[in-house]
Amino acid sequence: MKNPTTFENQKVLVLGLAKSGESAARLLSQLGAIVTVNDGKPFEENQAAQGLLEDGIKVICGSHPTELLDEDFALMVKNPGIPYTNPMVERALEKEIPILTEVELAYLVSEAPIIGITGSNGKTTTTTMIAEVLNAGGQVAHLSGNIGFPASGVAQKATKNDTLVMELSSFQLMGIDDFKPHIAVITNLMPTHLDYHGDFDSYVTAKWQLQKNMTEEDYLILNFNQDTAKYLAAQTQATIVPFSTEEKVNGAYLLDGVLYFQDEPIMSATAVGVPGLHNVENALATIAVAKLTGIDNETIKEILMHFGGVKHRLQYVGEVQEVKFFNDSKSTNILATQKALSGFDNEKVILIAGGLDRGNDFDELVPDLKGLKHMVILGESTPRMVEAAEAAGVPFVTATDIADATCQAFELATSGDTVLLSPANASWDMYANFEVRGDVFLETFAQLKETVL
Fold first, then answer.
1. Binding of ATP: at which residues (predicted)?
2. Any idea of the CA torsion for 47, 48, 51, 55, to the nearest 10 degrees?
3. Is 58 annotated among the ligand-binding residues?
4. Is 343 known as a binding-site position?
């Protein structure tokens, strides 16, 4: 890794731990910074903080005292989930302390070139697709960033001959300065995380940070199905490579059921291993990256044909008595569930939906629910989800939890049907996160398979 001297003897405050905060604190300490970590979780319950203290890093836990910023800090490295309205962050801004996120540190120490992927939906799937294709093509690609592997940790181990394939959230991109990927992808831009950003324009501005340092020698891959992307394409120095399922473009596109890159046929759209037109878009973005990095067509086709999805994101789980099971627990909003349903024949789908009640009405989901064979509804949002099922004319039952819902869905299914967990709601009414919710679905599937077979 590179060893910048920027941080030597500089006082740095790391605000918020989790995986990325711990990784950032350790890296900064290694680079000679005088590091203080501040995390809201009490010290006695905070294993990460305890480990940092054992290694000689100062930790302050249990609260966020703004007076801490009266110390002469040169920099704050903020956990991306902490909003800029947080009193600690506001105080840092008042004192004109620069605020970065951990991906900026990753860029500063990385010898490896970076492929950065962001977007409202599909970024995890696309990031994973790209890494698998590159690795199959003989390159060494490392998953990193928002996908669950702290970028600053992965960057330390990657060599100049490797590639960092980095999933990036809008929260992370708000805290970059010099960060520059060689290839960047924006899968799509939809109105999400508006509770954090305030409005769609601010959200787009955060996402657009991805290209701020790119030059004409770098490549920016944009979804030309969207007018927003076409508008933004004129606002960058990067070389634009578009993809589209709706028109022929000078990049990757769908035409007569075939996926192309610049007039070169790559594979049939129906051969992509995960269902849905949105996954065709993800495949097109992947093809663009693969072709730009020299991967041959046969490798691209082979990996995309056998791509099984990402865990909890329209993940194909398997079959029991010719009933297919898909785990889409990561669909925590209406848009994600709409996209999931678009890949199936509703008449053969038993949908498991419901969860945390955020006060949403599900009117906009009703057209997508029409024709479903059945729904199994659970969670705090049950009354609202029931209203949507009734409006769509879909029969439904209610369940006590995911295990119960999975068993009921299987009982309602016949050969050729699909049980789809795609909740359109967050999990926190019953489960710590969508991963735990999805794991319960996977465990129940395994029990059903063992019992029935």
1. 119-125
2. -160
3. no
4. no
Q: Which helix (H) or strand (E) holds 84?
A: none
Q: Domain-by-domain residue ranges, the chain?
A: 11-100, 103-305, 315-452
Helix H or strand E encompassing 9? none
- Give the architecture (CATH level 2) of 315-452: Alpha-Beta Complex (3.90)
C-alpha–C-alpha distance, residues 264 and 253, integer Å: 10
Among 280, 175, 301, 180, residue whose Cα is nearest residue 225: 280
Question: Is residue 334 helix, strand or coil?
Answer: helix
Homologous superfamily (CATH) for 11-100: NAD(P)-binding Rossmann-like Domain (3.40.50.720)
Report residue 348 as tokens: 């053969």
In CATH terms, are 103-305 and 315-452 the same topology?
A: no
Query: How far is 371 from 437, CA to CA, in rounded Å?
Result: 26
Enter the pTM of the model.
0.80
- The Cβ of residue 67 has, within 10 Å, a number of other Cβ atoms equal to 7
* Superfamily per CATH, domain 103-305: Mur-like, catalytic domain (3.40.1190.10)
Signed CA dihedral, 326, 330, 332, 337: sign only: negative
Residue 125 annotated as binding?
A: yes
Q: Please state, in angstroms and rounded to a whole number, the distance separating the CA atoms of residues 389 and 63.
A: 44
Tell the residue number behind the tokens 């473009």, with chain if given.
249
**pLDDT truncated to tens, each residue of the chain (453 aa)?**
898 999 999 999 999 998 899 999 999 999 999 999 999 999 999 999 999 999 999 999 999 999 999 999 999 999 988 888 999 999 999 999 999 999 999 999 999 999 999 999 889 899 999 999 999 999 999 999 988 899 999 999 999 999 999 999 999 999 999 999 999 999 999 887 777 788 999 999 999 999 999 999 999 999 999 999 999 999 999 999 999 999 999 999 999 999 999 999 999 999 998 888 989 999 999 999 999 999 999 999 999 998 977 888 888 899 999 999 999 999 999 988 998 898 888 999 999 999 999 888 899 999 999 999 999 999 999 999 999 999 999 999 999 999 999 999 999 999 999 999 999 999 999 999 999 999 999 999 999 999 976
Report the b/e string of 370-382 with b at 16+ CB within 10 A: eebbbbbbbbbbb
3-state helix, strand, coil in the chain (%, to 5): 40, 20, 40
Q: For residue 262, give both structure tokens.
A: 């610049």
Q: Is 212 annotated as a binding residue?
A: no
Q: Where are the alpha helices (DSSP H) in 110-232?
A: 123-136, 151-157, 170-173, 194-197, 200-208, 227-232
On whether 124 is known to bind a ligand per the annotation, the reply is: yes
